[in-house]
Amino acid sequence: MIQTYDDAIAWIHGRLRLGIKPGLARMEWMMNRLGHPQKKIKAVHVGGTNGKGSTVAYLRSIIQSSGKTTGTFTSPYFKTFNERIAINGKPVSDEDWLELTKRIEPLAAELEKLEIGGPTEFEVITAMMFLYFGEINPVDVVLVEVGLGGRFDSTNIIQPLCSVITSIGLDHVSILGSTYEKIAFEKAGIIKQNVPVVTNVKQEKANDVIQKTAAERSAPLFSYNRDFKAELLESEADGEHFIYRDNQVSIPVKMGMTGKHQVENASIAIFAASILSESLKMNITKETIISGIAAAYWPGRTDILSRTPFLMMDGAHNKEGIEALIDTINRKFPKQRVHFLFAAVGDKDLSKMIALLDKKAATISFATFDMPRAAAAEALVELSNHPSSRSVDALVWAEEALHSKSDDLYIMTGSLYFLSSISFEIKNLINTISKK
C-alpha cells in the first residue's frame, strides 16, 4: 500500500518493468475514469527528436515574463523526480505527488486485469500530470513535452492551442522507423485539425511529410527560416547574441544557453509565444521576449558547470545532437583540445555517435549508469577507434578534469539520464574542490 512519497516513487519506478508500449488505449481509459481532466487544460504540445526540453524552457520563461502561470511536463529529471511536473519551474510538492499516485494506482491495478494491460511508468506520470493541471492545480497554460514519437505517445490525447515539432533525427529507429520520412510521420501525429504548428524540420523529405500532414488537417504551418528566423551576431563562451525576425518584429536577444541549435530553439519559442498571445490574452512585448530568453535555463543542455577548468555537460543523445555539440565546439573553441566522457543507452546508433566524438577528441572516456537500458562502458570502448579510449567511473573522470591546470575543454555528453544521474554529485565535487 502506498503511504509515503518514497512508496509512491518506488511504485512508479516499478512500472519500468513494462517497458515502452506505444498506444493511446490505456491513457484514454484512465482519462475516462478521471472525468477527462486533459480537456480542462490549455496546452502547447512540443515534439521533435532534439530540442524539446530547451524549447519548453524558453517558452515557459517568455510566458512567465508576461505574467502568466505556466505548467510544464518534461523528462528526464535532474535533481528530484517531481521536476517532471512543475509550475513556473517549481516541482510539484511531495504531498501532491503522493496524492496523485494514490489516485492513479487503483486505476493501474484495474488495467492490469484487462486485455490492454497495465500502464507504463510514462503513462502513469502522464495521467498524473493531466489530473494535476486539470483538477488539482489549474494554471494558465501547460507545456507538454512528448515522450517518444508523437502519434502513439501517451501525451497525444490533448487538443492543444499550438503544436511544435522542433526537429527530426534518426533516433529510436527500432520503434519509430529507420528513415527521416517514417520518423517525421510519427512526429507529425501531434498535428491536430486547425491547430497551428511551428517547426524547424530541415530534411526535405521529412519536411514534405510535415507539410502534407498539416495540409490534410488544415493546420496553419509556420517554419523556421521561412516564417521566422534568427541572425547570429556574437557567440560567447557562455551564451549567444542574435536578432530574431518575423514579419512583425525584429528583436535583439541575448541568451545564456549556447550553440546555434539553441538560437533556433529560442526562435521557435518566440514565434510560438506570439501565436499564443491572443488565445491566452498575453501581452507579449519585446521586453517580455528579451527578459524571458535571457532568464531561460535548462540543465544538461550546453550546461557549463565550471569555467576554470572548463567543464560542461550536454545531453547529445543521438547523431544529430553530437553534430550540434561539435559544431558549437568548433565555432566557440576552435583551437582548444577536447576531452569527452560519454555514456548512453544501448538502443541508440552508438557507432555513428562515437565515430563523430573520436574525430574531435584529444581523449575519450566511457562510463555507464544505473539504468536497465544503459550500455556497458566496456562495450562503448569496443566501438571506439580512438587510441586513448578507456572505461572509467564518471566521478573519477570529473575529479581528474577539475584538477586539470590546462585550458582544455572537458565535456560530459550522451544520455540525459546519465547526466541527471551524476549532476548532483558533480556539483558537490565542484563545490568541495573550490573550497580547498
Describe the structure.
The structure is a single chain. With 436 residues, this protein is an alpha/beta fold. The protein has 2 domains: 5-295, Mur-like, catalytic domain (UDP-N-acetylmuramoyl-L-alanine:D-glutamate ligase); 303-435, Alpha-Beta Complex (Protein-Tyrosine Phosphatase, Chain A). 42% of the residues lie in helices and 18% in strands. It has 15 helices and 17 strands. The chain has helices spanning 5-14, 25-34, 52-65, 94-112, 121-136, 173-176, 180-187, 204-216, 260-279, 286-295, 319-332, 350-360, 377-383, 394-402, 416-435, and strands spanning 43-47, 70-73, 85-87, 90-91, 141-145, 162-165, 197-199, 221-223, 228-236, 239-246, 250-255, 303-307, 310-314, 338-343, 363-366, 390-391, 409-414. The strands form 3 sheets. The protein has an 8-stranded mixed beta sheet with strand order 4-3-2-5-1-6-7-8, sandwiched between helices. Strand 3 and strand 4 form a beta hairpin. Helix 3 (52-65) packs across helix 10 (286-295) and helix 14 (394-402) crosses helix 15. The chain is globular, with a radius of gyration of 21 Å. The model has no long low-confidence stretch (mean pLDDT 94).
